[in-house]
Amino acid sequence: MSAVRLLDELSHAPLKSEWLDTILKGDCVAALDRLPEKSVDIIFADPPYNLQLDGDLHRPDQSKVDAVDDDWDRFESFEAYDAFTRAWLLAARRVLKPSGTIWVIGSYHNIFRVGARMQDLGFWILNDIVWRKTNPMPNFRGRRFQNAHETMIWASRDQKAKGYTFNYEALKASNDDLQMRSDWLFPICTGGERLKDENGNKLHPTQKPEALLARIMMASTKPGDVVLDPFFGSGTTGAVAKRLGRHFVGIEREQAYIDAANERIAAVRPLEEADLTVLSGKRAEPRVAFISLIDNGLVVPGATLYDAKKRWAAKVRADGTLAIGGSAGSIHKIGAEVQGLDACNGWTFWHYERSGGLSPIDELRRIARLGMERAGA
Amino acid sequence: MSAVRLLDELSHAPLKSEWLDTILKGDCVAALDRLPEKSVDIIFADPPYNLQLDGDLHRPDQSKVDAVDDDWDRFESFEAYDAFTRAWLLAARRVLKPSGTIWVIGSYHNIFRVGARMQDLGFWILNDIVWRKTNPMPNFRGRRFQNAHETMIWASRDQKAKGYTFNYEALKASNDDLQMRSDWLFPICTGGERLKDENGNKLHPTQKPEALLARIMMASTKPGDVVLDPFFGSGTTGAVAKRLGRHFVGIEREQAYIDAANERIAAVRPLEEADLTVLSGKRAEPRVAFISLIDNGLVVPGATLYDAKKRWAAKVRADGTLAIGGSAGSIHKIGAEVQGLDACNGWTFWHYERSGGLSPIDELRRIARLGMERAGA
DNA sequence: TCAAGTTTTGAATCCGCAC
DNA sequence: TGTGCGGATTCAAAACTTG
């Protein structure tokens, strides 16, 4: 693999072959237009999400949330965002080989608009993939569900496109011999992997985890393929491509990001060819919510639960809380309350009645887990 | 809850009040237009997915997969599907209360188009929710990832809409005291829950699991609310609404589905009202003004309040304000000021001296609330 | 040097009533 | 319809501090 080079941002001439494994500086569409048509095997795009944030958000401890308020994420309107999306998708499509595929990541703020534009332009959606975050930011005001995932769209160039790369067998082998599902579980990018600036602050507000890109490339590219990233940012795509023996092309406007990405990629050591076969994903231990026992029919609303000695009896409500006397709350809260303790494991404290007598609801949790494990919860 | 009734499909006159807990037969938009505006609390919509299936799909054992190939799932083009989507969303929006919310479920075939149209019409997305299936159909050809989830969009009527129902505390209590995430795990609808026709075949190709609808209603409705489902199908929404003490309105074109849904809903026994109580948090507690503690004699003018570590001491004045140094104001303002913060909860920050040491004035608020309850305030 | 406790932080469309 | 303000609200993991 050749060294990382930086191309002249002022030129508009078509590029020859020296663009492989380099970062093109400049506007996304202009840079794409300089690349030869049908020249890249896959595209990974992490475009601005158009978050439309309004005012500050504080945590319960009054600290301020460091929001994404960069200029590049501000658009006048949905129409402006749509026009931007259409333009870069069109330019990207020209560059993509007929058998190539494209990945686009987004959140609910933008992904629906992006997906609709992709379909309008003739891209053929193969899957939507959910990146479930192990450690998402909470919802601090308690007014919505915790936004715990992002969505990726995987599409071929058009409906009739054949021969795209999908390493089905390798993915299956890496997933306990089960075919890989459309929901993936990864932590967000933190720790040593997260690039920092000279002040120790995060260099880029939306750096993606390398594991995510590795899964994508292992699934939909072959060694030696060319991966294009039109919103290169901190260069995760380039770092993973180099490590996995793929070529990359990045496009990025900001010099600070380009410099950091070049340095980052230069430090990457490619894997030995023999190690490129299978990369395994991480599994999390399944957590069972009490309400899922109700969902599964293992517990019925209105049922009574007891402690082991039947000193207390509490009623299950449809919302998944327990009620006893005047108070209601989670199985843990109510268990603690009746005992006058600060904390209590409701799973082992509360019991349900069955033929032989009382059994802890933890048994029901075990049963529920059997179903969840199949889903890799 | 009144019995299920079937309304005349030919009439176009506006409906009076007899539409509650009934299924309206006919075209979705025409039926919506007959309902009063701003009359339903939430909408759950499971529109046609526009699957665009092309030819038959066979399992490895050569058996044919029973695909969704009904007429109602066929559209000429994306444009036709968009027009259909826009029309029913617009009609649904008129019927929704200003503080109401809407849920729409779909797959990658249609959800991006639906989501974009929703944004175009002014709906404000609150979350996208991923339904992860424990038992999805495998991908038989091994050319894509196993399509193991569907996506739901939860949105308010418009950006400024306030006061929508979200039972945050109940959801959290039912989930091991962790806030509910945007990825949910449920099995697909099978077994006894799945409606069968006279030949023992599935009655409806896309019957949704009741647990999914129960989670939705427990999250975003109160008992007695009205739930509208403009694509009623086999009536899952009605069955769950009745069981959970909510009203429903269904719209459906096919008589066979209407008949099956009516029969199904008639067999549902509602839960006891006591089991339907929704856990509410501090936000729902009655307001207590700090000065009422003085009125009640729980705090005496001239008393000194401290923070937990006695770093600051402030004096209570007869008008219900706190004074410290040169400044005076509410318990919250002064608490924030001494800490140099923008905001502060004075009830938990300030403490009063008693025999055992310091106690937060929030304790006094609780005592005051008990008095208010006795007085029926 | 290690263990234990504390602080920090991450793509966030994050309030509702009274006046 | 806008403005003011009371006061409610967080999970996982890394980084940092203390013993």
TrEMBL record, chains A, B:
Gene3D superfamilies from the UniProt entry: Vaccinia Virus protein VP39
| Domain RAMA span(s) in chain numbering | 277-366
Task: From the UniProt record, list the reaction(s) this protein catalyses.
Answer: a 2'-deoxyadenosine in DNA + S-adenosyl-L-methionine = an N(6)-methyl-2'-deoxyadenosine in DNA + S-adenosyl-L-homocysteine + H(+)
GO BP field = DNA replication; methylation
Q: What family is reported?
A: Belongs to the N(4)/N(6)-methyltransferase family.
Q: Name one GO cellular component term.
A: cytoplasm
Lineage: superkingdom: Bacteria
Query: What keywords are annotated for this sequence in UniProt?
Result: DNA replication, DNA-binding, Methyltransferase, S-adenosyl-L-methionine, Transferase
Q: Which SUPFAM superfamilies match?
A: S-adenosyl-L-methionine-dependent methyltransferases
Q: Which Pfam families match?
A: N6_N4_Mtase, RAMA
| DNA methylase N-4/N-6 domain location | 40-263
- Per its UniProt record, what InterPro entries does this chain match? DNA_methylase_N4/N6, DNA_methylase_N6_adenine_CS, RAMA, RM_Methyltransferase, SAM-dependent_MTases_sf
Its recorded name reads: Methyltransferase
| UniProt GO MF annotations | DNA binding; N-methyltransferase activity; site-specific DNA-methyltransferase (adenine-specific) activity
Q: What is its EC number?
A: 2.1.1.-
Task: State the organism's lineage.
Answer: Bacteria, Pseudomonadati, Pseudomonadota, Alphaproteobacteria, Hyphomicrobiales
Organism of provenance: Mesorhizobium hawassense
PANTHER family (alphabetical): RNA METHYLASE-RELATED (PTHR13370), TRNA (GUANINE(10)-N2)-METHYLTRANSFERASE HOMOLOG (PTHR13370:SF3)
